[in-house]
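Milestone M4 deliverable, item 7.
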Amino acid sequence: MNFEELITEANALNLYKKLIIQLNKDLLFAQVDLEFDEETQPLSLKLVLQETVFDLIQHKFSDYLNLLYQVDVSEQKIKSLDSSDMIKLSEDVTFLILQREWQKVWYKSKFI
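Output delivered:
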């Protein structure tokens, strides 16, 4: 799955807004100063989140780790990423965050 497929599936199931709500909740719990409007377009969501992740990696690494913990991103998946290019790393981490948030939203919609 890639970003476009994730967004297509979220929209098809009318869960895109819930994805934003879940992301906002975890950003708040992780004390990351970022909140998305529920009307945020997918590309804007991705780019702003990616920029924030990049900034956290560069300047607030403990906050970055806290965000990964709060979202519950797999440590194995993070370790498997190439960290030689920070821009590519922030893009990959952003996708992992969105993917994990999507898993939470999808699961809640199906089973809760």
